[in-house]
Every structure is written in C-alpha cells, then in structure tokens.
Specification:
- With 405 residues, the protein is an alpha/beta fold.
- It folds into two domains: 215 residues, Glycerol-3-phosphate (1)-acyltransferase; 109 residues, no CATH class.
- Helix content is 48%, strand content 10%.
- The chain is built from 13 helices and eleven strands.
- The strands form three sheets. Strands 1-8-7-2-5-3-4 form a seven-stranded mixed sheet.
- Helix 5 crosses helix 7, helix 11 runs parallel beside helix 13 and helix 12 runs antiparallel to helix 13.
- The longest helix has 51 residues.
- The C terminus is likely disordered.
C-alpha cells in the first residue's frame, strides 16, 4: 500500500518539475514474473524507471540504504522499505547467494524484479561489464528479461551531487523481452552465464547509446581511487622532498660561510719557517707533539757504543742511556768537538754531551760511519752536513801539526 501512496504523491511532482519521458513501456508484461535489467546512472533511477509502469517494481537495493544513522538514515530506511526495495549485501560470497535467494523468492511470488547488472552506479557515464547474477536468476526462475536503459540520468544527477540539474530531462527506454529458454537447466555453466549476461548488456547498450567498457565498474572505481591516492602521495612526497632540499641547501650555505670564515682565519696565521734543521726542527717550530720515527741503529754506530736503543739513525745517545730520545747528530757533536779542541784526543775520540765516544779513525770516521748508516731519505742532508765538518777537522789537524813543528 505504501508503494502506491508514494507513487501517487511523487508522480505528479516529478512530472511537473522534471518532465521525464518514457519509451517502450508496452514491452513490460502487465502480470507475471519478469526481470527488469537496467543500467545505473544515478540515484534518481529508482524513481524514474518505475514511474511510467502500471505495476510495482521490486529492486534489489544495496544494504547501505537501510543501515544509515540519524534522521537521514531513518528516512532512507522507511522510504526504501515502503517502496518494496530489498536490501542486498554486496560483499560477495555467501552474501551474494543470499541476494540471489531473495530475488528468486520475489520472482516466485509473480512480481517484477528490478536489477542493475553492473552492480553499482557508473563512475563516468559509460556502460560497464555485467555480473552474471542476472543470468542465474533468469535461468533458475525461467523468466524473461526486459532490458531497460536510463537516459540522461548521469547528467541529471552526477555522482556526489544531491541537487539535480533542472535543465536535463531524464528518460527511460524499455526493450523487447529477451527469452533464454534455450539455456534452461544450464545455470551452473559459467560460459552460459557469461553469454547470457553479455547479451543483456548488449541490448542495454543499444538502447542507451553508451560506450561499453569490458571491466567491472567496482574494479574501475577501486583502480581510479588507488591512482588518486597514489597521486596525492606522490605530490606530498615531492613537496616533502622540496622542503628537504631547501633545508639541505640552507645547511650547505651555512657550512660554506663557516668554511670561508675558518679559511680566512687560517690565512692570517704566519707561515712556519722550517729552516735548514730539517723535519725535526719543523716539528719543534710548529709546536706539535710529534715524535721522530725511531729506528734501531745498525751495528757499529755511535748509538750502540753508548748502549742506547731505539735512537734515530745517525744520532748519538745521551750519556744517561735514555731510550728513544733524539739527541744532537754526530755531525753536530763533531763540530762541537772540533771547536773545543777534543779532536786532538787519543784515537780520534769524540764527545757528545760530555760522553766520550771512541771510534777507529777519530771524528772523521765517525762522521763517515754515521752518514753511511743514515736512511736514503736523509742521505743528502747527511752529506751536506758532512762537508763543513770535514773542513773543520782538516783545519784543526793542520793547526795541530803546525804546532808540533
């Protein structure tokens, strides 16, 4: 009763406001069970599809229409229940089987069952691949299928829009009933179900003039939603990367400025004059706590004569026997000995810091032995230092002989 009351009230209002039109309503049987298979463009399809028909249409509606909360939810549930709509869980599996069982009960009661083979509203106005539930119902209930095409509904009320476009006149077309009696008893054959479903979708496409997409509308929606989320994620990542790049650039600029300041301070320092004393003198002048590399002196050197170990090659150990302490070179000791007259001591003995060092041929032999035991890196320096020492020794020897004469 509620269905007819609502239709009696709404029909004049809808005709006055939107001037809907219909074509082919005579193809719909006035009595007996049948399936009304329609495309799904907008929410308004529930109103304009049954409007021109003289009999009640029971639609399998999504369960969300019956589970809403608040005033809107209560109104939606009361309206769809009163219109004879049956809630359907679209999660698949057992829920789909229950929906099919509900549809079979409606058809068994001799009613006109409305169904949307696409399973959901079109996301872009095109016609998408049909699900085989409509074929199973038609074969199991052994009833005809009337193709139905809604016209202009997508533009009349686009997805997500509640207010309709008054300049659009929605319409509906009904096609001739489709008889699938040749497939009765084959409702469990997947190929047959697909063939029947595709034939129904094809007839709807001819009536609506829509572009066909061989893809389920639900999958298409999910893919577009995923692409949109990925695009937002990529945009957010790009923005974050740009912010990070700005921070890195700022840090690099600050580090560069600090480096210039440090370089400026370093350039103002006075250069260190290494001088002719060699690496040891440069270490002392630079104030660094560097230790000269110690190598064990070869056999027969002045270092072994004093019992010192680990002294640098070509150096004389201190009289105290301290290990690893670099002292004056033999060249310097010979020079000091020549200046103090020690050169004339027996057997050519030399002195370093008050310690007598005895050699086979006197100071000149000590100088030559030290120069030979020096490393290849210090050889040039030892030879350069040996020349003035020899000259000094020669002069001292000449003076000594002159005195004896």
């Amino acid at each position: 009763m509620f269905y007819w009351v609502v239709k009696a009230v709404l029909a004049p209002i809808l005709r006055l406001l939107f001037r809907p039109w219909a074509q082919g309503a005579e193809y719909v049987p006035r009595t007996g069970p049948a399936i009304l298979a329609s495309n799904h463009l907008s929410f308004s399809d529930h109103f304009f599809a049954p409007l021109p028909l003289p009999r009640k249409v029971v639609f399998l509606a999504k369960s969300e229409y019956f589970t809403g909360r608040g005033i809107k939810g209560l109104f939606s549930k009361a309206f769809f229940s009163g219109m004879g709509q049956i809630p359907v869980d679209r999660t698949g599996g057992e829920a789909s089987e229950r929906a099919l069982a509900t549809g079979l009960r409606v058809l068994a009661g001799g009613q006109l069952l409305g169904i949307y083979p696409e399973g959901t509203r079109t996301p872009d106005g095109r016609l998408f691949r049909g699900k085989t539930g409509v074929a199973r119902l038609a074969l199991e209930a052994r009833v005809p299928v009337i193709p139905c095409a809604m016209i202009g509904g997508f533009e009349f009320q686009p997805p997500g829009k509640f207010t309709p476009q008054f300049k659009i006149r929605p319409g509906v077309k009904f096609g001739k009933p489709l008889d699938f009696s040749r497939y009765y008893g084959m409702e469990n054959d997947g190929l047959v179900l697909r063939a029947v479903t595709d034939e129904i979708i094809y007839e709807i496409m001819k009536l609506s003039g829509q572009e066909y997409v061989d893809e389920y509308a639900a999958q298409h929606k999910a893919k577009k939603h995923a692409e949109k989320r990925a695009h937002k994620h990529d945009a957010a990542a790009a923005a974050a990367a740009a912010v990070g790049a700005d921070k890195v650039a700022t840090t690099a600029d600050e580090a560069g400025a600090a480096g210039v300041a440090v370089a400026g301070g370093a350039s103002s320092a006075e250069p260190i004059d290494v001088g002719p004393a060699g690496p040891q003198a440069s270490d002392a002048q630079s104030g660094g706590a560097q230790t000269a590399s110690a190598q064990t002196a070869p056999t027969g050197t002045a270092a072994q004569s004093s019992g010192a170990q680990g002294t640098p090659m070509g150096t004389a150990a201190q009289a105290s026997g301290t290990q690893g302490t670099p002292t004056a070179t033999v060249d310097d000791a010979a020079a000091e000995a020549a200046a103090s007259g020690i050169v004339g001591s027996p057997a050519g003995s030399g002195s370093a810091n008050g310690t007598v060092v005895t050699g086979a041929d006197g100071p000149a032999a000590d100088v030559e032995g030290a120069a030979q035991s020096a490393s290849a890196a210090d050889e040039a320096l030892a030879e350069a230092d040996a020349d003035p020492v020899r000259a000094n020794v020669d002069e001292t020897s000449s003076a000594a002989k002159a005195g004896e004469a």
